[in-house]
Please model this.
Amino acid sequence: MPARTGEEYITGLRERAAEVYICGEQVKDVTTHPAFCNGVRTLANLYYMQHDPTLRDAMTYRSPTTGDRVGLSFIIPRTIQDLERRHTMMAHWARATWRLG
Model:
C-alpha cells in the first residue's frame, strides 16, 4: 500500500469506523470526539510528513514490487543502510511528537 496522507488516514477511520466506547458512551466518530481527536490529528500529521517534499526521501522508499512510495516503517532492513534509514525516519517522528533533539 502506498504511503497515505493524513486526510486518507482520517477518511479511513470514518469509513471503517470501529465500535468504540468511552465511559459507557458509544463514540460515533473518533476523528471529532474530544477524547480522540488530538491523537488522530497527531497521527495524521505523521502521515503528512511522508509527503513533505523536504522529508519524502527520509520518510519513504520505493517499493521494489510496485514502485510506489512506502513508509520506511515497513522496510525490512537487509543492510546497515536500510536500518540507518529506518532510524532516521523514526527520529523524525520522535522529534515531531515529543519535540526531541
